[in-house]
Amino acid sequence: MVVDVDSEVEMLTVLIGNDDFEIESICSEIKQTVLPEELKDINTIILDGATINFQDLISHCNTIPFMSNLRLVIVNDFASVIFGTSQSSTKSNSDKSDLSVVKEFLDSVPDTTHLVMIDDNLPKIRGLSSYLKTHSQFLQIQLPKMYEMPMWIQNQARKIGISIDQAAVSALVESIGNNKRNIDQELTKLSLYSSDGKIALADVKETVAVVREASIFAAVDSIFDGNPDRAFNLIQRVLDDGNTPQSVILMIVRQLRFLMLCKDFRLRGVSGADIGKRLNVPGFVMKKIFQYEKSIGMLSLISMHKLLLEADYALKSVSTPSSMILDLLIVDLCTKVNEE
Questions:
Q1: In Å, how far from its chain's centre is CA 214?
Q2: Whole-model pTM?
């Protein structure tokens, strides 16, 4: 995303959304307008709105740039510095007198200061939101949809001087998703790994640890997402890498066990933080567990557990090809998820 640094409202920028990588990129782009190059850092300050007060902000914005054309002030959690740290203070009916003071301050930000405000709460503040949309560069930055990621990866690869084939792109998307920061890090690593600047699927499998290690987790997640097509694709890759159908079922059982325990803890009134401690799993895994626990009922989880037991028994006792048993299991599990 290109910031319009020639706009009449260029000295006020609002950034909201869940794409932290893009927001940081925009801030870096704005920082390039601070001259000369050797004084960019000394004329750039990043503030946490939860740790400063309104007078501190005014002081930072009114500070004269040091031997430079511009001073860049970036404020995370901007609503907190204005209204305090309590969540209730950012509600839509915030005091009008407070808002008038804020608007007066924003109108008075000197031309030598570029103020960047980052906070998802800003659109919720009636009066201030409409003011910012007309008096600043108001940018909503959301993570790309999964189907948009291949194009983003191709563009990012070109920026760092490499080309990447479609199979390699698909492997990155399926294993990392739309986490742009992680993908950018892996592309940088691949650029150093490659001798000719051309990245193929084999390079990704060899170099990107998350592709090797997370494929099974992504495959299991696709089942609990109720997405059989993606599950078939990812599980086939897992099998091609030498894993057995039994090991795939074991990983599904593991995730299902966590979901059932989480559901039981929830019903007994245990807090989310305590559930995470009791299950003793990484934070990113816990986030997924909470997501699925909310969307899948206990009866469906019990039915899925029965399907897994039946599939495990079939693998050990009948002559039906294991691949067919696994395929039927995937369909049945996804069907249960989609019945919710």
A1: 16
A2: 0.62
**Tokens coding 131:** 């003011």
Q: Name residue, tokens 């930072």.
A: 60
CA distance 60 to 113: 9
pLDDT in tens, 194-236: 889 999 988 988 888 666 555 677 888 899 999 998 899 888 8
Single-letter code of the amino acid located at 56: D
What are the φ/ψ torsions at residue 199 (nearest 5 degrees)?
-105, 125
- In CATH, what is the architecture of 146-207? Orthogonal Bundle (1.10)
What is the rounded CA–CA span in Å between residue 16 and residue 23? 8
Task: Please tell me the distance from the alpha carbon of residue 36 to that of residue 180, in angstroms, as a whole number.
Answer: 30
Q: How far is CA 258 from CA 36, 83, 106, 113, 286, in A?
A: 55, 40, 49, 51, 9
Residue with tokens 């009449």: 8
> Which tokens sit at 333?
């599990």
Which CATH architecture is the domain 12-140 placed in?
3-Layer(aba) Sandwich (3.40)
